[in-house]
Design a protein that fits this description.
Elements: E1 4-10, H1 23-36, E2 45-48, H2 67-77, E3 88-94, E4 97-100, E5 103-106, H3 116-119, E6 121-122, H4 123-131, E7 137-143, E8 165-168, E9 178-179, E10 184-185, H5 186-195, H6 206-223, E11 232-235, H7 252-267, H8 271-285, H9 289-306, E12 335-344, E13 350-366, E14 369-376, E15 379-383, E16 398-402, E17 405-408, H10 414-421, H11 455-468, E18 475-477, H12 481-489, H13 514-520, E19 559-565, H14 594-600, E20 607-610, E21 626-629, E22 639-640, E23 644-646
Parallel strand pairs: 1-2, 1-3, 3-7, 7-8, 19-22
Antiparallel strand pairs: 4-5, 5-6, 8-11, 9-10, 12-13, 13-14, 14-17, 15-16, 17-23, 18-23, 19-20, 20-21
Helix pairs in contact: 5-6, 7-8, 8-9
């Protein structure tokens, strides 16, 4: 079990600043919660107020602070690491704060507003000392904007502190208000309410606590007639957003985002971080088998890598590379991107909007054209549709386990298609039409998905793309049907990743014909509002909301080819992994080397399509829906595809 320590500081009386009413009470309330409810170590709770008892030591440590005493305490207490990775160290401060020469400062009782740098303690100094504790989860809770002067822009909150999670009680140009009726600051009152929440509505993670504070502090202030106050969070690095603060109330749902971040770290071979995150998963889940296996796997990989010579192998010129000297790849490091998700109710009304982050790399296709590949975490999901939803070919539901992989953020665009189709030097088996799309003459056609491409065309495209990226070791291909549905659902179990229904504000489909849906399928998917029928494709990313993995256009726009041959249902499917379901060929035969490509391009079996198109009724845009087509058919102006890849084998 992780250790939990806290330093709680509350200052009412100041020599050179106006006194406060409830800062001391707030710190005492935090201490009481840590002792009685939070599971904090008794020997790791340190309270500093104007009348708090000394800390037992030899000699005893006084707790009536000056700026010098706080500095000495932090220096001596964390001179050597007393905590370990996986432990938590919280620092709560209620009092005045100041910003001076682009730095944030905490004002102590003897601090002088005219000489802040010499008489206050910078938040930089606090974080530097706390990070020496050894804990990898340092949490700052700063209720330090209680001076009315801070409305002029003097409040703290502009800086970002590396390696820590910082909750601010308000933005830098706001005041943090005290509520006489509650005899507390509104931020601390709401913070304690959030920490006490249980069950599915808990605030066990950094992200959930931030959401609760932002929502509830504003309501509290409005209820008691105070001006607006907007708490906010800065987490650096971003994966700390998913850290679990309260293991004792965390649910399995709370663990999933942390598992995702652990998978991403392991994917990019950041084994130290991956191990820390999996340890946190293990602590919060109290025995997660994925975490146990991952920790063992990382230990094996670290052991293997330590025996590999550090001298790199010479790079050999790859066939088709136009440069005489291969350039070092700029794509191996993952980058972070932000996106928004929404959830709608059965009437298509938005009930939730949330900001998320994911990671990706960019594959250079030449001519200033890139392909963005999003990291998809491994996991297990239920594939197919439940009773009362969908057709027989989507049944029976069954469990599938999917290892981590990468998937295109969008369907392949016409510009991306042309970049690869024009490379005759990369040809594997067949020529590719440079401009196959029906909607190729629109002003924004470069950003529209390519369509009127056959399954064979998509296989040739992936083979060429793999050849282009040979130096990086990436092998591109179409997704398996299981990978596609897993990526589309992104942890959801509803008919659409948006929720129970769909609207034309969120996706491109035949949005004017709900009455057809209601007649043929009464009660199913026909409850959303009547919308638009655009009668053509839209540019990828036109709809500014993604699913929980950061993928766009998974519902509608164009049907997307998958690798699998068609089966009339999932009856008889015995495999539980996400590989291609093909009784005639092994997974290795879908690796796109030249011999395999030649064989696949002569295979006449019908292939699977997923996701619906601009021409589809809502029912045919669901996460579980399946369709099929002849692999050589190029006549449909709604058939496209997106690509996937795994990390290179080592």
């Amino acid at each position: 079990m992780a250790k939990n320590w806290v330093i709680a500081i509350g200052i009412n009386e100041y020599d050179n600043l106006k006194p406060l009413k409830y800062a001391k009470k707030d710190a005492e309330a935090i201490k009481a919660w840590c002792e009685r409810e939070g599971g904090f170590d008794r020997g790791g709770i340190f309270l500093f107020t104007e009348d708090s008892p000394p800390i037992p030591a030899s000699p005893p440590i006084p707790t009536q602070l000056t700026h010098g005493r706080l500095k000495r305490f932090l220096q001596r207490q964390f001179q050597t690491p007393l905590l370990k990775p996986g432990d938590n160290l919280w620092f709560f401060f209620a009092g005045h704060g100041r910003r001076d020469q682009d730095k944030d400062y905490l004002m102590l009782p003897d601090s002088d507003p005219g000489n802040v740098r010499e008489t206050a303690v910078s938040v930089d100094y606090v974080t530097e000392r706390l990070r020496r504790s050894g804990a990898d989860n340092v949490v700052l809770l700063l209720d330090a904007c209680r001076d009315e002067d801070s409305r002029g822009g003097l409040g703290i909150g502009e800086e970002e502190y590396q390696g820590v999670i910082t909750f601010y009680s308000c933005t830098a140009n706001q005041q943090s208000w005290e509520i006489d009726e509650l005899q507390q600051g509104s931020f601390t009152h709401t913070l304690l309410e959030g920490l006490r929440r249980q069950g599915e509505g808990n605030c066990a993670t950094v992200e959930r606590l931030d959401e609760y504070l932002r929502r509830q502090v504003e309501k509290i202030n409005a209820r008691y007639g105070k001006p607006r106050q907007n708490p906010y969070l800065k987490a650096e690095p971003p994966h700390k957003l998913y850290f679990i603060l309260l293991e004792q109330v965390a649910t399995l749902r709370d663990v999933q985002p942390l598992k995702y971040q652990a998978s991403l770290a392991e994917n990019r071979s950041d084994f130290d971080l991956a191990e820390q995150l999996w340890i946190r998963v293990l602590g919060a889940s109290r025995g997660d088998l994925d975490a146990i296996e991952a920790i063992k796997r990382i230990a094996r990989r670290q052991s293997q890598s330590s025996s590999i010579p550090t001298t790199p192998e010479p790079v050999r010129q790859s066939e088709g590379n136009r440069s005489s000297t291969p350039k070092p790849s700029q794509e191996n490091g993952l980058k972070v991107f932000n996106f928004e998700i929404v959830e709608v109710n059965a009437k298509g009304e938005q009930i939730k909007k949330e900001s998320k982050q994911s990671q990706y790399f960019s594959q250079d296709l030449g001519k200033d054209i890139t392909l963005e590949m999003v990291a998809i975490p491994g996991g297990t999901f239920t594939m197919g549709s439940p009773a009362g939803e969908g057709d027989n070919d989507e049944k029976p539901q069954h469990q599938v386990t999917v290892p981590p992989f990468f998937m295109g953020k969008y369907p392949i665009t016409q510009a991306q298609w042309q970049a690869i189709a024009s490379r005759a030097d990369l040809k594997v088996k067949q020529d590719l039409n440079l401009k196959p799309a029906y909607f190729k003459d629109r002003p924004d056609s470069d950003r529209r998905p390519v369509e009127q491409v056959s399954w064979y065309d998509a296989i040739e495209f992936c083979a060429r793309l793999s050849k282009l990226s040979k130096l990086s070791g990436r092998e591109y291909r179409l997704p398996s049907e299981a990978e596609w549905e897993y990526a589309c659902r992104a942890g959801t179990t509803t008919a659409f990743h948006f929720g129970e229904t769909i609207t034309t504000d969120l996706a491109n489909y035949r949005g004017t014909d709900w009455e057809i849906e209601n007649k043929v399928y009464p009660g199913n998917y026909g409850r959303g509002p009547k919308g638009t029928y655009r009668e053509e494709t839209t540019p990828v990313g036109h709809f500014k909301v993604a699913n929980d993995f950061g993928l766009y256009d998974m519902h509608g726009n164009v049907w997307e080819w998958c690798l699998d041959p068609w089966h009339d249902s999932y009856e008889g499917k015995t495999q539980t992994d996400s590989e291609v379901w093909d009784e005639e060929q092994s997974a290795e035969q879908y690796l796109l080397n030249e011999n395999n490509v030649i064989q696949l391009l002569s295979d006449k079996r019908t292939r699977v399509l997923r996701g619906g198109s601009w021409n589809s009724l809502p029912r045919y845009c669901r996460s579980a829906v399946r369709d099929r087509d002849n692999p050589g058919n190029r006549n449909n102006y709604y058939d496209g595809f997106r690509v996937v890849c795994r990390f290179p084998r080592t």
